Amino acid sequence: MRLSASLSVVILALVSYATAAQTTASVPATAKPHHAAAPILAATPPMGWNSWNFFAGKVTDKDIRSAADQMVATGMKDAGYIYVNIDDTWEGERDANGVLHSNDKFPDMKALADYVHSKGLKIGIYSSPGPKTCAGFAASLDHEVQDAELYASWGIDYLKYDLCSFIPAVMMKQAPNDKAEQMRTMIAAYDKMGKALKASGRPIVYSFCQYGWDAPWEWAPAIGGNLWRTTGDVQANWQSIYNIINQNAGLAKYAGPGHWNDPDMLEVGNGQISRYDNKMHLLTLAENRSHFSMWAMLAAPLLAGNDLPNMKPEIKAILTNKDVITIDQDKLGHQGTRAYADGEVEVWTRHLVGGAMAIAVLNVGESRYSTHPFHLDLAKLGLHGAQKGKDLWTGQDVTLSNNMPVELASHDILLVRIAAPK
Ligand code: GLA
Prior knowledge:
- The protein is of the alpha/beta class.
- It contains 13 helices and 20 strands.
- It has helices at residues 5-23, 52-55, 61-73, 76-79, 109-118, 144-154, 166-174, 179-199, 216-219, 238-248, 285-297, 313-319, 322-328, and strands at residues 47-50, 83-85, 91-94, 100-102, 122-127, 158-162, 205-209, 227-229, 260-262, 271-273, 280-282, 302-304, 337-342, 345-351, 357-363, 374-375, 387-391, 397-400, 405-406, 413-418.
- It has an eight-stranded parallel sheet. A six-stranded antiparallel sheet has the order 13-14-15-20-17-18, with helices on one face. A two-stranded antiparallel sheet has the order 3-4.
- It starts with a helix and ends with a strand.
- Alpha-D-galactopyranose binds next to loops.
């Protein structure tokens, strides 16, 4: 159990409040990111690896080094994965001067950062605006400037800042009966660390992890957020992955170079122990493909979360599919949208540089097979007549024609790039 029972209850209560607030949000998007002359940080969605989804609280210095080694050895670095991000449980205690030290699992953070940099990669770290992290380790409350300076002195390139204990320890304590004030307090805390990171002088990608509360897409870019979680935590099962896809429909206009919706880290290659049979159920290959394709359609950060030293070839093939990564990293930064749904099949489109278009046909359902295929309606995508493109999973040329049947196994996807849509 990562959270204490009482904290979990508080978080659950606030998540339902925030979800309700989210669906009724009526404030228009006014916050526009301010870009100075310096190159835009996270001009395309950040790509890398994060320790949490596979290692959770067990991660060590050795695991991070070996992840960095594997990112190079497997070709992931060449495919664009750059950040090696340490999630929760690296933190030790503060000394008499308030300086935070890492714990025994991470003997020397500067040496670790140097090692990761020596591979041509970048390194990320994790904290919380509250007194404790989600896993109960020391966090940044009242030490924001000191921590930002510490990260910069180690050579940190990315910070994931996770709300967690800030909820009960500050928001609920300071404004027990005032949700709006709680949210203002939360935004101020993210702003505070954003300013501390800027003042450190080091370009550090700033990732907000506050589960989509109070529509962060409306206010995060203006206070320096390069990405913000749009939902609760992803899990390695189709229901969780699809729920997240669904919750990101409608957020496209908020994404763009330097500021991205974050549907959470990748579970490609992972699985879960089922409470029904106590056995590990890995995501199927179709689910891994669909998950990865849809994160690319959503212009999502691509942070792999699997066991890199033991990655199977078919998982590596998915994570390093350069055509799909090119969709994700498209310079325009236009997030894809759901064009239409027909029963359990959804069709999403994404506009790409040079007038190109990506089309994803996703079979969301559990049990639909080939006996009654879905038929593609090109007019609903604004297209007229046959469209020549490339199937990004077979690598073959493909022509999409109006009303053509598309047969997809459960949870599988057809992802096509059309160079010159008509
Ligand atoms: C929260 C975050 C996760 C992970 C854990 C670490 O649940 O949403 O992504 O960082 O905390 O404790």
